[in-house]
Specification:
The protein is of the alpha/beta class and about 250 residues long. It has one domain (about 1-250): Rossmann fold (3-Layer(aba) Sandwich). It has 7 helices and 12 strands. Strands 6-9-10-3-11-12 form a 6-stranded mixed sheet, with helices on both faces. Helix 6 (about 170-185) links the parallel strand 9 and strand 10. The radius of gyration is 18 Å and the shape is globular. It starts with a strand and ends in an 18-residue tail after the last helix. The relative contact order is 0.18. The protein binds adenosine-5'-diphosphate and magnesium ion (MG). Magnesium ion binds near residues 40 and 85. This is Fe-S cluster assembly ATPase SufC. GO terms for molecular function: ATP binding; ATP hydrolysis activity. Keywords: ATP-binding, Nucleotide-binding.
Length: about 250
């Protein structure tokens, strides 16, 4: 189980997350929605230990193991994975060598790397010649997102946080990415997912066990998949004064 308990997170001296709690059990898919700037990426980054974010209180537990004091690589080795909202371009490091290096680091052996890579490329409809290109360098938005899911497929973590991995994709790429995630879930039913998204259509591909709505650094509501529909119709927030229509949040 991945447990977040009363997590408070600061960035640049500002308190962004205010006592956020949620727990994801093995095999569960949770959807996290909320207006831009509500703190979704802050939660994702804090979970993996991005040093720009300071945990000012609360706990993160992965199968009871406290993570807050651990470096990102240790968290990854324990089975946590983050697909970035904005994947970084790294010139001079090929995709293949990046993937192979991380794979060996995580699995302590390069066994089956090539076989798994070929399977994952096929699953995500990625051309093998991408492996010779520099990591994310000059990739289109959609290619960057596919590259994140390729890592997810290869590294087989216990829990994956996907930060708007379905944003900015054309219809075909959205389908490939969403079907890719759903296929991974089938081959590894124990995989827990926290999917940050603005896109209700993702539910066509993924069964959501729990949906959370974040607003101004807090989870203001959690529920089942019906909550997505509610947000689509009524917008975010409980009261009219807090009402922010979904459509205005789709951009960016
Ligand atoms: P979301 O992913 O939900 O769109 P973020 O987690 O990216 O939201 O941002 C949450 C809040 O943190 C925003 O209000 C943003 O302006 C603020 N923020 C981001 N970077 C910094 C920073 N360096 N210093 C202070 N506040 C920041
Ligand atoms: Mg974000």
């Amino acid at each position: 189980m991945l447990e977040v308990k009363n997590l408070k997170v600061n960035r640049g001296g500002t308190n962004i997350l205010k006592a956020v709690s949620l727990s994801i059990k093995e095999g569960e898919t949770h959807i996290l929605m909320g207006p831009n700037g509500s703190g979704k990426s802050t939660l994702a980054n804090a979970l993996l230990g991005n040093p720009l974010y300071t945990v000012a209180g609360g706990k993160i537990l992965l199968d009871k193991m406290p993570l807050v004091k651990l470096s990102p690589d240790k968290r990854a080795k324990l089975g946590l994975f983050l697909a970035f909202q904005y994947p970084v371009e790294v010139e001079g490091v090929s995709m293949r060598s990046f993937l192979r290096t991380v794979y060996i680091e995580l699995k302590k052996s390069g066994e089956n790397f090539n076989k798994n890579l070929v399977e994952s490329l096929k699953l995500l409809n990625i051309n093998e010649n991408f492996m010779g290109r520099a990591l994310n360098f000059g990739f289109s938005g959609g290619e960057k997102k596919k590259s994140e899911i390729l890592q997810l497929a290869l590294f087989s973590p216990k829990y994956a946080i996907l930060d708007e991995t379905d944003s900015g994709l054309d219809v075909a790429s959205l389908r490939t990415v969403a079907e890719g995630i759903s296929a991974l879930k089938k081959t590894n039913p124990k995989l827990g997912i926290l999917m940050i998204t603005h896109n209700p259509r993702i539910l066509k591909y993924l069964n959501a066990d729990v949906v959370h709505i974040m607003f101004q650094g807090k989870i203001i509501k959690s529920g089942n998949a019906a909550l997505v529909k509610e947000v689509e119709e009524k917008g975010y927030g409980d009261t009219k004064s807090k009402l922010i229509m979904m459509n205005s949040e789709r951009i960016g």
